[in-house]
Amino acid sequence: MKQPVLTTKIKKWQIPLFIVLLIFGFVLVAQYRTHLAVQNNLESLSISELTELVISLNEREAALSAEQETMQAALDSINERINTGISMAATTQNQLNTMEMITGKVPVQGPGISITITGESYLIYHDLIMLVNELFVTGAEVVCINDVRITHKTAINEAIDEFGHRDITIDGKVLLLPIIIKAIGNPDTLEKGLTFTGGIINKFNTIYQVFPIVKKEANLIIPAAKNAPSLYLKSVVKDSTKKNKEEE
């Protein structure tokens, strides 16, 4: 007697849920690599600058932890919707749209502040790193410098030209003046977070003679991040398939 063949049918909601969980994992990796990118530039900082940076990073870490808890709550909400039988189509699409904005895959717009640094101000690369980090700590959701969107893969550094001048570089390209930094978030909060007495802008003015112009903006447009190839990430499925073929 022929035995019946059992098959497992993939439910419609399992595929979008897998995609959301996969993207959630990439966001966690992105947060970790952001810390590594800042740490690569620590060797040239003084003790006082390192102290300020450590404080800022601790505050940023707390903000990231809160963001992670929010995203976890969103995933829990998805699971609850599945259990109660509510359609996943609209919910999944909204989650994917949010993930694309967070990871920099799409342009975004919203209120915030702009910071303009002209050629009269002497700025070095770790000043720029501290300023960007302070924006994120203050509540910026997205930041760009001269329309280069800042992500976990962005490298802010310096290079010395043929005349011995030091240039700030972003991902290996020289940053031209004026430097215009855009940050999307609550304009009042972002402005106060930078300009309060004893804050980073005040220190730039009094210690380094750098005078950024901070302006609240009703609407800013920040472009998508440039795609950069992953040097270490590989698909487990593809690698397993290739290995199986080689064994055959």
Q: Which architecture does the CATH hierarchy give at level 2?
A: 2-Layer Sandwich
Major β-sheet profile = 5 strands, antiparallel
Amount of helix? 40-55%
Strand line-up in the sheet with most strands: 3-2-7-1-8
Q: Assign the CATH topology.
A: Alpha-Beta Plaits
Query: How large is the radius of gyration?
Result: 23 Å
Q: Provide the number of structural domains.
A: 1
Mean pLDDT: 78
CATH superfamily membership: Protein of unknown function DUF881
Instruction: Estimate the strand proportion.
Output: 15-25%
Brief write-up:
This protein has helices at residues 14-39, 47-83, 89-103, 125-138, 187-195, 200-208, 236-247, and strands spanning 108-117, 142-145, 148-149, 156-160, 166-170, 173-174, 179-184, 213-222. The protein is of the alpha+beta class.
